[in-house]
Amino acid sequence: MTSNNTVSLHPLQITDLEALQEAANKSQDRLVPWYSTPQTVESWREFMQRRLGPNDLGFLVRRTSDDTLVGFIDITNIVRGVFQSGYLSYFSVSPHEGQGFMASGLRLLVEHAFTELHLHRLEANIRPENEKSIALVKRTGFAREGYSPRYLKLDGAWRDHERWAILAEA
Fold first, then answer.
1. Which domains are seen in the chain, by residue range?
2. Spatial strand order in the sheet of 143-154
3. pLDDT at residue 170 tops 70
4. Which of 22, 61, 108, 130 sees the fewest Cβ atoms within 10 Å?
């Protein structure tokens, strides 16, 4: 789809199920409590099917040099009309975290969202204690817009989140 010298961004396809499931499983110890992955084969199929569009879109981040899967980004709850907005979630694949792949992938995704998908706004809601994720969105040009107490129910409890966003005009 689109690439730079470091990574390429590929729209998710149903045939990516095994690769994405394996990547998430390899990364599970780092993802908890920040990202909840499906736990059954059926829930993985549902996860994948939802991210094929039109309201949720998934993307694989692959290292350009060897096509290794290094991350996953999705835009969910895309609203058209006067809003033209979507929500981001993402994770890096172990052992490729901390090498700049996700920052490169997120920059490509933002460009794609604004030029190809014609979105106006992308929002990432991040738990305040997730310092690495906050650093990632800062590096990518997102601005902190606010704080949402008890925003999402994760791990059986309502969790506070910081609201980060980037606009097409930014």
1. 2-167 (3.40.630.30)
2. 2-3, 7-11, 57-63, 69-79, 85-92, 121-126, 157-167, 143-154
3. no
4. 22
pLDDT digits (tens, 9 = 90+) for 17-29: 889 888 888 887 7
Q: What are the C-alpha distances in Å from 83 to residues 6, 121, 122, 165?
A: 32, 8, 11, 14
Q: What is the pTM of this model?
A: 0.91
- The number of beta carbons lying within 10 Å of the beta carbon of residue 152 is 13
Distance, CA of 170 to CA of 159 (rounded, Å): 29
The whole-chain average pLDDT of the chain stands at: 91
Tokens (6 digits) for 152: 């999402």
DSSP for residue 34: T
Give the C-alpha distances (Å, rounded to integers) separating 4 from 47, 83, 102, 104, 105: 28, 29, 12, 8, 9
Rounded (5°) CA angle 57-63-70: 60
Condensed to tens digits (0 to 9), the pLDDT of residues 88-117 reads 999 999 898 889 999 999 999 999 999 999
Quote the tokens at residue 117: 């998908």
Within 10 angstroms of residue 17's Cβ, the number of other Cβ atoms is 16
| Structure token digits, residue 92 | 């890096």
